[in-house]
Amino acid sequence: MEGKVTIIFGRRTALASTFAVALSRAAHADDWPSRPVKWIVPYPAGGGSDTFARPIAARLAERFGRPMPIDNRSGAGGTIGTVVAARSPADGYTLLLADTGLVYAPVVYPSADYDFVRDFAPISALARAPYVLAINAKRLDVPTLEAFLEAARKAPGGIDMGSTGLGSITHLAITLLEKRAGVRLNHVPYRGGAPMLQDLLSGQIGAAFVLASTVAGHIEAGRLRGLAIANRRREPMLPDVPTTAEAGLPDFRVTIWFGVFAPRQTPAAILDRLHEGVQAALVDPEIQRLWREQAARVEPEPRAAFVDFVQRESRRWTEMARAANVKLE
Q1: Cβ distance 274 to 260 under 8 Å?
Q2: For residues 277 and 63, what is the distance between their CA atoms, to the nearest angstrom?
Q3: Measuring CA to CA, which residue among 187, 188, 189, 205 is closest to residue 139?
Q4: How far apart are CA 119 and CA 213, in angstroms?
């Protein structure tokens, strides 16, 4: 009988403890924010992530009346700062600016001690920017995506296609293209986008996936040819370049997306307030102008829709990362 009493008492204690934690979280959510909210950007200052993080953080700081400083924590493909964010208290005072690469990074960097879907609560998308399959016509003279794929089938491994690095989204885009189209390409990894683009322009490589904002001027000037936008709709910067679906490769999408996240157990009330704040900032005309300059956009959406999107992207790119079989430290 004494054992039964002890068990019941233990359960009541656990329930009381859980209830107390819930009340504590609710109380913190009511007075949030009472101090600065730190945004961890897991890349160097001045990069593409900062382009989207800093303007939104500034508008949220105005909205909530508290500073939102950016903390650039770079290293190991963004995983160092991401681990710091995952281990931070789930109290609404630490946010993470994440992009496509971080959802699958633990596959590429085995030492990265996090699981993106398990450890983070999605708040809102910030921007999505499409990639263009671009070629140097002097090195590889094909007029269309269909002709490009036919050339790849006739000469397996004969087309040199650059990426911004092993395990990068552009590397996985090549893997995805090979799987979807049934071709084999010769992957040439670079250390970043600048040297890759330089070699594409000079004809050292024949093709690459390049961000629309980066390659638009070169396509317009005739230095490169855009075969397809890897997105569902055409890019206003490149109105004459068809989508991959229009070019004969349906449901092939490669975008770099940026979003804001918090540690998983952050109270829902705080997540919802942050989501509302980001959504309001995204319709600001100045923000929209800045985004257009980067060929980036984002549609207003409920937070639940962004949660679903992140889960789908995690499954898709994790599968490609495993297929690419890249391990970095």
Answers
A1: yes
A2: 7
A3: 205
A4: 32
Tens digits of residue pLDDT in 104-154 = 999 999 999 999 999 999 999 999 999 999 999 999 999 999 999 999 999
**∠ at Cα 157 (321, 175), nearest 5°?**
15
166-202 residues labelled b (16+ CB within 10 A) or e (exposed): bbbbbbbbbbbbbeebebebbbbbbeebeebbebbee
Cα–Cα distances in angstroms (integers) from residue 188 to residues 147, 198, 203, 238, 272, in the given order: 21, 13, 13, 26, 43
* pLDDT reported for residue 29: 79
Query: Which pLDDT tens digit goes with each residue over 270-313?
Result: 999 999 999 999 999 999 999 999 999 988 899 999 999 999 99
Q: Where are the beta strands (DSSP E) in the chain?
A: 38-41, 70-72, 94-99, 120-135, 160-163, 186-189, 207-211, 225-229, 255-263
Phi, psi of 219 (to 5 degrees): -70, -45
Mean pLDDT of the chain: 92
H/E segment holding residue 107: helix 100-108
Q: Are 227 and 148 in contact (CB under 8 A)?
A: yes
